[in-house]
Amino acid sequence: MENGIYECISEVKIRREPRIVESPTNQVGLLKVGTQRRVFSVVTQKNNVSWGRVSAPDAAGISQWVCIQGLNRTYMKLIQPDTNNTESSIEYLKRIESKLDQLLAR
Q1: Which residue range is the domain that position 22 belongs to?
Q2: How many domains, in total, are found in the chain?
Q3: pLDDT tens, 6-19?
């Protein structure tokens, strides 16, 4: 799995973390079939379930995630790879932290 533009081929729930939590739920939205979203980073778990981060972290550091590939179902397909996004999550966080430090110094 890679970063880029994905299209929903099956309805998928938007969640606050890359895992399913039912009680209380971590669902914050729903993407319908045909919806296209940019995936900024992909996490694949040990059981080969892949999650895509579809938002930047908010003030509390929480991002929105969707399941790209479940155990028995594909929810989203890659339609356009992101050739310009070579920045890793760690590099992204360091860059944001640096900008925050600059703002706080003002």
Answers
A1: 4-105
A2: 1
A3: 999 999 999 999 99
